User: Fold this.
Amino acid sequence: MARGWSQWYLYTFVSHAAIRSVHAKVRALTPRTSQHDLAKLLRRINQITHGWAAYFQHAVAQRTFDSLDHFTWCRLIRMLTVRHRWKWRDIRRRYVMPNGQWQPITAGGIEWNRTAAIAITRHRYRGNTISNPWVPGTT
Assistant:
C-alpha cells in the first residue's frame, strides 16, 4: 500500500532490456557517418521513442524518459558534428538562443520531440474490477 493512501496501487517499472532495445534502435539510426536526410531521421526517431514511451507511460519512468532524451540528443548532436565538421561553439551558435535556452533540433519542418514531455499517469486504482481466482466469490 502506498504511504498515505488507503488503497493498493500497482507500480510498474521499465526493464533494462526494454531500455537497451530502444537505445539500440536509436543507435542504429544515428551512426556518426550517416548521410540520411535529417527530416526523415527525426520523424523515424520520434516514431520509435514516442511509441516506446506510450507503452511505458503508466510506469514509474520519468527519469527513464529523461535519460532517453539525453541519449537521443547526444547521438543526434554527435552525428551532426561529424556530418558538418562542427565544433562545440558551432553547435552552441546554431542551437542556443540569445537568452541561453536550447532550441530543439529541427529539419524540414520536423522537430525532434522530447520523450519526457509525455504525461505519466502512475496511480491507477483498479478497484474490484479484477477477479481473484484464489478468493471464493470474486470470480
In short: Residues 28 and 84 are 20 Å apart (CA to CA).
